[in-house]
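Hey, can you fold this?
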Amino acid sequence: MATVRVCVCGDEGTGKSSLIASLVKDVFVSNKIQPVLPQITIPPSIGTPENVTTTIVDTSARPQDRTTLRKEIRKSNVILLVYSDHYSYERVALFWMPYFRSLGVNVPVVLCANKSDLTDNTTPQVVEDEMLPVMNEFREIDSCIRASAREHQNVNETFFLCQKAVTHPIAPLFDYKEGNLKPVCVSALKRIFYLCDKDQDGYLNDDEIQEFQAKCFEKPLSPEDLDNIKLSIAKSVPGSDTTKGVDMRGFLQLNKIYAEKGRHETIWIILRKYHYTDSLSLEDNFIHPKLDVPEYASAELSPAGYRFFMDLFLLFDKDNDGGLNNYELSALFAPTPGLPQSWMESSFPSTTVRNEAGHITLQGWLAQWSMTTFLEPKTTLEYLAYLGFEPPNPRESITSALKVTKSRKRRRRPGRVERNVVLCYIIGGSGAGKSSLLDAFLNRPFDGLYNPTIKPRRAVNSVELQGGKQCYLILEELGELEPAILENQVRLDSCDLICYAYDSSDPDSFSHIVDLRKRYPQLDDLPSIYTALKADKDKTTQRSELQPDQYTSSLMMSTPVHVSVTWNSIGELFVALAEAATNPSTAFPKSEEPPPDRTSIYLALGATTCAAVAAFMIWRRSTNSI
């Protein structure tokens, strides 16, 4: 917020204009001043909260000026309501506050008792009896203060409260009626506690508190201040033990104390350091930073991103069994809205590697995030923000956890593509064994019971390529959406490889692939591999114009790979798929003979030419010598 606009309201004769003049001149102006001062703009100074510019607008309470009053109230960010005697005090509840409500404005009100030099009733009890009933009746009153323009008492403080009411509002944080922090504030502070508890032991130890202090306030806590904080928590939270550090209850209680004592700007400093807005939601540009992924390129986790998710897994695997159970997953995702929507729709964790107990392993965890980043990088960025990723270089943003690969539009060009995550569509007729192939990819036992796939299903796992390099392979079975996906050019562009799968024991299985390629000629633009599944059964002749071996030979492609999910060698198929996806030029259908290799002819011609030139030079030299 760049400007705070203060509308000064109140009955005639309460000293509104004198209060403004005393602020500007820094002394009381004894000379008679005009009834309504012109608008005043005050630039930010050292003590101005959030470094805002302040605009102060004086108003008149006369009935004939009511139209101007309404306009100025509606344009303001905060209202300074001034009273000076019993009559004008009564008018606060009887006229002014109902009038503000009738205008439909939703801005904080600062109540100022001016001319306090004319009364002796300034004891705390009198102030409490006078101001608290009004504050309890009208929740929009942010704060109250006694001031005197003549004595220049609390003048600066009055307008500081107006600024603070806008830059550090109490309403979103604290419910005076209930005497508690509001639920949305508690949720935000719980997330901050979670992010500060680096070892996830449920306590902020001294080092974690000092790190939190440095991040929020950019200065360390002295040992005395730290002890005082722990003492305050111990007194206000029964049964609390601060020897281990500050727990969640103590952290929330400490912030409640700040709110009760009017130090809510301290809470706002904490919240804003952790990217919370005035409505206590995370800043949109923080959870949705800009990331451009060009056409034919993809997004992957960078080394920093993989390191963050690996550390997160190890931190929350409390029982050290190599898997995250439901309780550990729930604790890990505590500062987020929950599991990503796409994970729930795909029945996570069935999409990746799990241990015997059904809990996701570290290998599966990294594979799942690799797939999420490939398919929806914005979701990964959002959860990196929720989970507290901090870039290695403070000048960098959350996007440093991701990297964008080079475009791979020209797939027929020889050579590897610079991708560590690739997507392969498994296409074939019903009952071909596609689902069993995905289960085998995730090391699941074979299930002979046939369950047709309705919705698209994905599986992701790491594959070790030749030479020891690792990549993540995503296998996707399209289900009943196969026709729609194959007609969608954007979906095809994102695919790195097509695996045509058929049941070698079913005579009608291969014809489905032939029909698909005729129906969707755009599939010729994608690298592909043909796979004969269920090779453990008796091979049968396919009811097709050409048998699979003849068909692939006519395309000048490799003959189908014969595999069975019951064989131990099934892993070789996944390596072949990953190799073809990362080296796509090796898996394209060719419509003509490759051009002959004339390299040897060119070399021979070059050698002959060099010999002829050398002979000519020798002959010239011998002729000249004669």
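Oh, and this one too while you're at it.
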Amino acid sequence: MSGKGRGPEGPEGQLEAEAGMDTSPDLNVTSQPSVSWILPGDGDGTGDGSVPILASTENQGTDTEGVNVASEFLDDGAEDTVLYCGCMYSEEGEEDEEEAAAPQHQVQCSEANPNPHLPDEDRALEDWLSSETTALPPPRWHALTALRDRQLGSSARFVYEACGARAFVQRFCLQYGLEGHSGCVNSVHFNQRGTRLASSSDDLTVIVWDWVHQRPVLAFNTGHRNNVFQAKFLPNCDDSILATCARDGQVRVAQLPALPHSRVSKRVAQHRGASHKLALEPDCPFRFLTSGEDAVVYAIDLRQDRPASKVVVTKENERKVGLYSVFVNPANTYQFAVGGRDQFVRIYDQRKIDERENYGVLKKFCPHHLVNCDSKAFITCLVYSHDGTELLASYNDEDIYLFNAAHCDGAQYVKRYKGHRNNATVKGVNFYGPRSEFVVSGSDGGHIFFWEKSSCQIVQLLEGDRAGNVNCLEPHPYLPVMATSGLDHDSKIWAPTAKATTKLVGLKNVIKKNKQERDGEGSGHSDLLDSHMLSFLMYHFTRRSHPLHPRHRRLRTPPGAGVLAAELAAPGAGVLDEESDESSEDSDESEEEENQDRVQCLPS
């Protein structure tokens, strides 16, 4: 849970459905009881308007005393209190777990029976990993206290507070995958109420999921000509507007209720290079920002006849800096941060941009050891914390760094998160928790890392992707649930339903492998010729193989999508709108022109 949005207040109704636990046999899934998801504001269920919870289906229809939440204390060295997420267990099960729950060490020593006489290589690895870390803090949330307060009516935000508990994070496990795309899933995004999930893919489609029932409710061809990198619901519009950006540089907007009767979507901006990220303004249904590898940031205002206006061109020493990420400060929507093909995090204020003075930059940050580093480290993703006071930046083949957004220009980072690897794709990073208590990132090899933010300690390691890379991590707006995507052709849903905390088995070996591979390659950038060739081949291959090419006009209908998706897949449904048709030649020229002078990362 990123903390960027709060749960809705005064929901009109609730949706209650049982979510299955089926998943691929290729992934290790912790054994767990079945769970019911109770969501507000969608469906015909009844409820008292309180914040939704996870409820066990094992005990439904039986006489139970108390609430549907069981808790126990585990001695993890910090007197951690653990909440079973809406799951009731027998006394025998609880006793078995108490016997199995051994004290947890810091992650550097999480392997069983640590050897005091380590080889020099292993000792150097542990010294590197333990530097710039501190001991895990005591838990800030206690199950019994919170349950008592809720029963007495003095805790109106029980679930909101519980979502930031370390006990939840340490019990995360895979629930199921949402299968429907025929290509890599590049992004996932929950709507404001958390009842729908949008996924975008290399197959040029977006699927809107009822993620609780594991079924698509809408699938449509976006009108893009190349890999769709991101799709996001605009807030406060009743989920009627969805914005997308893609490798073809186009930024498009789809009016979802009109899709069965209209021609796909409308192009609102065109970058001269790939556009990787959109940045929404909190609570604003008609404005957002977009950035591209052409170094340009556009402001999109859907109320205008010409929605796109150029905000700034990012430069350093008269050289354009291609952008991979943009994010609006949730506490001050005039300010936004960008990151891309150099080592600097840049913050702009739309009211004060003067490109003649410091290229319009308000302030910029960079880890001091990377300022003049020969490795050419660059930023693949950055995000603000829930209150806009902190900035998190993930560097290609380097670590993740936390900056204090209030610090002066050029200030050093305040925290550093180690152990993962960000090399093969343009990976995302995110905060998790209502107060941004955790940092979460994907990694080469298909793993998902959770760090406790204040101590920089790894508290969870998950196997997230068979194909080897997890690129996007999207916390639910107000439930202890997370969606992820990567090179696999499905989106995955995670929740804290494991009976015991993760033992972090194999963590040391994963970190060792990541560190050795990173040190062995010794460069953040791929070979220039290889990158040019990759970009060229990807562009032409996707043009000829994806549905919008004349040979493949039909949309592949995902299983269970029903009549609506079939209608969208009919002849003519995938045709671009007139505005996009007029600009298609310009788009091709700009894409090929940009390929001549850019270093392209592997496809995200």
